[in-house]
Amino acid sequence: MSAVTVQTTVEPLNFFEQVVAATPGESHLEACIQCGTCGGSCPSGADMDHTPRAIFALIKADMKEAVLHSNTPWYCVSCYYCTVRCPQDIHITDIMYTLKRIATQEGMVKNTPREKAKAPNFSQAFITWVENYGRSFELGLMGVHMLRHNPFGAFKIADMGVGLVAKGRMAFTPTRIKEFDSLAAILAKAKELEGSE
Amino acid sequence: MAEETRIGVYICHCGTNIAGVVDVGEVSRWAGELPNVILSRDYKFMCSSPGQELIAKDIKAQGLNRVVVASCSPHLHESTFRGACVSGGLNPYLFEMANIREQDSWVTTDKLEATKKAKALVAAAVYRVSYQKPLESLFVPMDPSVLVVGGGVAGVQAALEIANSRRHVYLVEREPSLGGHMAQLDKTFPTLDCSACILTPKMTDVGKHKHVTLFTWSEVESVSGYVGNFTVTIRKRARYIHEELCTGCGICWEKCPKKVLDDVFETGLGYRKAVYTPFPQAVPNIPVIDRPNCTYFIKGTCQACKKFCPTGAIKFDQQDELLTVKVGSIILATGYEVFDARRIPQYGYGRLANVFTSMEFERLTNAAGPTGGKVVLRDGVTTPKSVGIIHCVGSRDVNYNNYCSAICCMQSLKFAHLVQEKLGAQVYEFYIDIRTPAKAYDEFYQRVLKEGAQLIRGRVAEVTNEACLPGEDGKLIIQVEDTLIGKQRRIPVDMVILSVGLQARADAKEVAIKFGISCSVDEWFIEKHPKLDPVATMTDGVFVAGACQGPKDIPSSVAQGSAAAARVMSLIGQGEIEIEAATAVVDDGTCVGCKECIPTCPYQAISFIEYVRKAYINEALCKGCGTCVGACLSKSINLKHFTDDQLVAEMVGAMQTMKLFEAS
Amino acid sequence: MKYHYYPGCSLEYNAAAYHVSTLAIAGALGLELLEIDDWNCCGATEYISLNLAAAYALIARNLAKAAQNKATRQVVAPCSACYLNLRKCDQSMRESPKLDKKINTALAAGGLAYQAGSLAVRHLLDVVVNDVGYAAIAAKVTRPLKGLRIAPYYGCMIVRPDFEKSREVGSGKWRVGSGEWEAVQSGASTSSARLDKSAAGQSGAAGQNTASTSLGRLDKCEYPMTLDILLKNLGAEVVEYPMKAHCCGGHMTQISEKTGFEMIRRLIKGAVEYEADLIVTLCPMCQLNLDGFQGAMNRHFKTKYSMPVLYFTQMIGLALGMNASDLGIGSELVSSRAALAKIGVEAPAAEKPAAAKKASKEALPMPKMPDPTPALPIAKTSDREGGYPTPALPIAKTGDREGGVSPARSAAPEIAKSKE
Ligand SMILES: Cc1cc2nc3c(=O)[nH]c(=O)nc-3n(C[C@H](O)[C@H](O)[C@H](O)COP(=O)(O)OP(=O)(O)OC[C@H]3O[C@@H](n4cnc5c(N)ncnc54)[C@H](O)[C@@H]3O)c2cc1C
Ligand code: SF4
Ligand code: SF4
Ligand code: SF4
Ligand code: SF4
Fewer beta carbons under 10 A from the terminal one: N or C of chain A? Predict the structure, then answer.
């Protein structure tokens, strides 16, 4: 970040409250002492726009855009190292999921640059198969994702795909579960309830 | 009751504390109409001198024989008002207090409701006080001897202060020598004077003091009694050395063929013999034989020490001794232990050879230590060129100890200085916050910065030997977020020092129970008042000093040692101890001798008189807790000042008032 | 012992070898696996990134389906991500009545219901080491994995997060220890008063047949040992693998190659440096990353690593004398042929890597560590027994350091003469 002075609001810091409310259980986010254990432990930390610690400072400063436009939550690989090491028992990984959800649900992902939308698109692509079949489908997922983001890069790992197919480790067609309709109804209902009290 | 009951009621405003919520004038007016109330007043500050004088004057002028004050908590001012009654010539137990502040004005916002509650509380006190009887306090003589448990710097200081004022001290230390942790340290912050040089003179003074009886290699087995009259049993463990015959010549440990890893004093970095003193300046300078490791005790052979001892002091048949002493007061100075760094696997202690704890480093850098003061890696020869010091290991962390250990920031800065001075090595310190809040401490921090230490703000994520980047091979890599730049950094170093926190002794809880005091959740001993009575405990006559009460540096430990001594001396100066008169008594007429009450008493105050077959309560031991009252099946135990008729009257007073309000 | 079996999507194709080998050893170990009828995807880490209620409803459908079959209340999942999802869903529903209500409302729309807490969700490794037990497995070994140097790899989601921790922090019970320590200790006999606060029944890592329904932590978060001990019991030589609980990168290869490949490289490099013949894992995602992407990673960094990655179930099968082909061996992209050739070959290991260096006279002793390994019926003690990849400095055997007091204390004679 370049050195700019940020005017702090006197209004209640709504973003912080929003994050806490959208995280199941007690996140303990209010207790962060900015020690950096999370940032130091994070395997993706080197490539994140802001370390998890910095993200929490931004949340407390109510800088919602900076948080939701950063790649940080999307670079979280759910290793839970930060969560078990945090000296304040802050549920960091869960908060990363919350941030991803807020970003998608509030449409923040749409106006992010293509490169940054990679992760949300991957999640979306994955889920599309699940929502339509009840099971995930690796070949289809990779195909869609690669074509969208890195059509040439696909060659790089093509031999892997070939290898997996050759070893019978990749299906050509997705499987659909038997009671798909019941699942569809469940998911539809759940989506309707998301965000409700 | 022949005498007419004449009650005076005083309603305190406590500035606006009470008067801001409770209509004190109305309460006072209303109280004046209660039965037997001769006068009722409200006043700004009852606890002030004029307030107290008012009570005394009224007692004399109006012939009051009962007094009720409605104000704050009895915890705060009961003794003040009792005193006022006494100066008016009234027995202090004819006074009763109603708490209309903590229990009313501070917790009620509705003014009407608060006033109603105040009335009910005052009525309860007025009804009760009529039934109160004059009681006489008991005085017991104060034994002027003192027991000090723990011979670290705090205990040594306390013992010296008391002994120098010619009172006798029994000093009990668990290890073979006095000294505690301070004896292990090299230099001490912030002035960097040599720890042994300032400590050993004190130890020697205690050791040869004619008013100190020293029990090392000993522990307190049991304690009974009460302030002024404790009986203490001490277990003096067998040293297998005759203390009078031993001259401390050291031939035994020179000749002893059995090398043992010393994981107490040398923190596992060095060796001692099976017969040993922990360090050369030990007080007393008498060795002990480490029975589980001694060849004689294992195989029945060897006896080298015995063969060579010039005075014949080795006594393999020595037994533990139990000794009983009588003391009037007790000071606990049992200190702390350090956090076990193996509990944080990501810091690699015990797995990665060149990760050391702070205590290990103290021994490494100490000229009397296992390497003769050479700071080297675990291979014993290589001098580190770069050293990383990690703060807050096991401290400030809900996973381990959720408090700041107070000394480790300064101790880490001290290490930075020592490493740079001795080795010229590059030092990195990893901290969350630098805490240097004492005289000359922050100046020391500045000095270390000027000497070139690199301070990196970030709590270390992990220490690894897994090289990823060039330049990391063969090093320990400290992985951290430098929070001031918001970037991950990997810092390769040769040696890592973990500044482990302080924690309560593993047996702190047992010790607390033994001496009848309490522990905090972190198992530190709890003082009577954190600000105003920091070395006393809730148990009269038992005091605490040093790091057993919480993490502390040497200056504070010494200050507490002196403070505890002063508190003890003031007790001794009083000559006798006043004992609360509100104790339980057994009614001989109805006691059936079932002994049900005896085990229920937490203070062992109840005994059984065989020839009359009745229970008897020792007033000096009884704390008036009332547990036995409930246990007695024949209702033969009465708690003075808390009799059935007094409690019933109190309830009637409160309930009748509430009924009145309901009706209106 | 009956279990609801949740294979998860990976085991259908990409990790079919895991599925095949699990079924192959189940019978021999006395595990009856009842595949959950018409199970669906658990949503991996993706669904929960988009929609919380839907993600949990998706997971809960599996639990609801399982609960319909009353034969057992144990659910076992071989995939770490599935395991975590199922368990977290159950846990969150228990902790948050609000969430529970939402999920059950959603389930009702599909004609289902699930009562949180009615099933115990467990990872396959947990079942194998705690319900079957090390000793029972060791007793069945007919082809010890002798001479095979294995890097045990746990990854993240089987050891983290720490469910016990949240519970204990909440109840104020947390202060005494992380619990991780107890898990290490439970193999060794000693534990000081300070350290043994946690409920005795918690499934200690090394404990045998600890309460199988206990939902405590399986192993410590940072330096787990369960798989190490299991492999030792199969006769293998287990290398001290410092990266054993580090992250494989999950889906990172799809998001940022640079980040993802680096995570894979660290793990492979670590195993190579410790001269492991192969990595053994317990998660299909880890296997895919380490095995499937190894080639792409090699190209990215211009390296030439060739480190086979197999499942622990395959290793058990081999040790029990089963045929490699019946265990799905051969479907890995980095061939394990050379590594497996070592098994059973009596020839002495050509070079004994990293043999303990003789400590020099000056060397300072290493701190003592509790030995996490319980009595191993067949495993040969390696030269690094209980040791670490550091030069073998004298590891003292005496004294009791935990108490922080003098070594002789516990042995003071009982009889006391009383004066006065
Ligand atoms: C690495 C390190 C470096 C430090 N450096 C400094 C420094 O430079 N400057 C500074 O000011 N402070 C320093 N400190 C802090 C210092 O060690 C303590 O402030 C000080 O030692 C506290 O003294 P104490 O007497 O209260 O406790 P201790 O030194 O712990 O002494 C307690 C004594 O009681 C004995 N005992 C315990 N239980 C019993 C029992 N039940 N019965 C009988 N005896 C018992 C013990 O054996 C011990 O001898 C350092 C601490 C550490 C860990
Ligand atoms: S580890 Fe915890 S306390 Fe430290 S910066 Fe991260 S979230 Fe905050
Ligand atoms: S859980 Fe996510 S944020 Fe936390 S350390 Fe792992 S990758 Fe980083
Ligand atoms: S008898 Fe024991 S203490 Fe004496 S010399 Fe032999 S081993 Fe050492
Ligand atoms: S004194 Fe410093 S190093 Fe020690 S716990 Fe407190 S902040 Fe951490």
Answer: C
The residue whose CA is least distant from atom 4 of ligand 4 is B305
Let me know: does B353 contact B393? Beta carbons within 8 Å.
no
Query: Mean per-residue pLDDT for C380-388?
Result: 33
Confidence check: pLDDT of A29 > 50 = yes
Is residue C6 scored above 60 in pLDDT? yes
pLDDT at B454 over 70: yes
CB atoms A183 and C162 under 8 Å = no
- Rounded to two decimals, what is the model's pTM? 0.83
Nearest-10 Cα torsion for C8, C11, C13, C16? -170
CA B296–ligand 4 middle distance (angstroms):
6
Cα–Cα distance measured from residue B401 to residue C176, given in angstroms and rounded to the nearest whole number = 7
According to CATH, the topology of domain A8-114 is Fumarate Reductase Iron-sulfur Protein; Chain B, domain 2 (1.10.1060)
Q: Over the Cα atoms of chain A, what is R_g?
A: 19
Minimal-distance CA residue of chain B relative to C174: B399
CA–CA dist B426, B446 (Å, integer): 17
Least confident of B267-271, C6-10, C408-412: C408-412
CB contact under 8 A, A170 and C247: no
- pLDDT reported for residue A137: 79
pLDDT of res. B178: 98
Q: Structural domains in chain C?
A: 2-129+190-210 (1.20.1050.140)
Instruction: Check CB contact under 8 Å for A118 and C254.
Output: yes
Of all ligands present, the nearest one to the C-alpha of B255 is 4
Q: Residue C93 pLDDT more than 80?
A: yes
Q: Can you name the residues that pair with B455 across neighbouring β-strands?
A: B429
Tell me the nearest-neighbour CA distance from C62 into chain A, angstroms. Answer: 10
Looking at C196-286, which runs of residues are DSSP E strands? Answer: 237-238, 278-281
Q: Distance from first CA to last CA of chain B, Å, rounded? A: 34
Q: Is the CB of A37 under 6 A from ligand 2?
A: yes
Q: Is residue B470 classed exposed, middle or buried when 0-12, 13-18 and 19+ CB atoms within 10 A define those classes?
A: exposed
Would you state the pLDDT for residue B56?
Answer: 96
Domain ranges of chain A: 8-114, 117-197
Give the integer Cα–Cα distance in Å for C255 and A120: 9
* ipTM for this model: 0.88
Reading the block at residue B364, the tokens are 């490494």
Asked whether the predicted pLDDT for residue B498 surpasses 90, the reply is yes
The full set of domains in chain B, from first to last, is 7-134 (3.40.50.960), 337-503 (3.50.50.60), 584-640 (3.30.70.20)
Cβ pair A182:C110 closer than 8 A: yes
The percent of residues in chain B predicted with pLDDT above 90, rounded, is 91
Q: Which residues line ligand 5 (CB under 6 A)?
A: B 391-392, 395-396, 404-406, 408-409, 432-433, 435, 499, 501
Q: Determine contact, residues B323/B234, Cβ cutoff 8 Å.
A: yes
Alpha-helical regions (H) of B397-459: 408-423, 441-450
Where are the extended beta strands (E) located within B227-372?
Answer: 229-236, 259-262, 270-273, 275-276, 288-289, 320-327, 329-332, 336-338, 355-357
Q: Report, as an integer, the average pLDDT of C248-256.
A: 90
Q: What are the tokens at B642?
A: 């808390």
Report yes or no: B518 and B538 within 8 Å, Cβ to Cβ: yes
Closest chain A CA to residue C328? A167
Is residue C375 scored above 80 in pLDDT?
no
Provide the pLDDT for residue C396. Answer: 32
Dihedral sign from CA coordinates of C85, C87, C88, C90: positive
Question: With contact defined as beta carbons under 8 Å apart, do B430 and B388 qualify?
Answer: yes
Give the gap in angstroms from C-alpha B472 to the nearest C-alpha of chain A: 17
Chain C, 273 to 312: residues with Cβ < 8 Å from chain B are 273
